[in-house]
Design the sequence.
């Protein structure tokens, strides 16, 4: 089994807010991240695909195909967006790094026609990242 990872970067803003919590509870739990005007991050995304090497091509997949899939399914939807307001998946779900990783998995896994999605890694900052391996 070969694991191939493609990296991409995107910038987005968001805020953390649970409508079931009181304003005080939101501020206590989420702190500065509860600012309704949001704050931004420069995210780094790593998408790892697992598969066997195709003997005809010598590749698990054509990395150009993976790049196009990332651009159409993730970057066009999330890059330079206010996630809470511009990405439907986050209208009712808090766009934490964990939920962003799950959403990216959900966007890519059904459309991947080569290999199998193995891992989504989202860096919120150089020293904080989330790994998601699906269910």
Sequence:
């Amino acid at each position: 089994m070969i694991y191939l990872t493609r990296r991409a970067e995107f910038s987005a803003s968001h805020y953390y807010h649970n409508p079931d919590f009181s304003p005080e509870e939101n501020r206590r739990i989420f702190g500065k991240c509860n600012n309704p005007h949001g704050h931004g991050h420069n995210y780094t995304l790593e998408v790892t695909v697992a598969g066997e090497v195709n003997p005809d091509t010598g590749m698990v997949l054509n990395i150009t195909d993976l790049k196009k899939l990332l651009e159409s399914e993730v970057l066009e939807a999330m890059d330079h967006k206010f996630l809470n307001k511009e990405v439907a998946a986050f209208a009712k779900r808090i766009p934490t790094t964990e939920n962003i990783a799950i959403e990216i998995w959900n966007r890519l896994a059904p459309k991947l026609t080569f290999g199998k999605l193995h891992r989504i890694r989202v860096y919120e900052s150089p020293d904080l990242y989330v790994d998601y391996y699906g269910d």
About this structure: Helices lie at 23-30, 63-78, 83-86, 97-108.
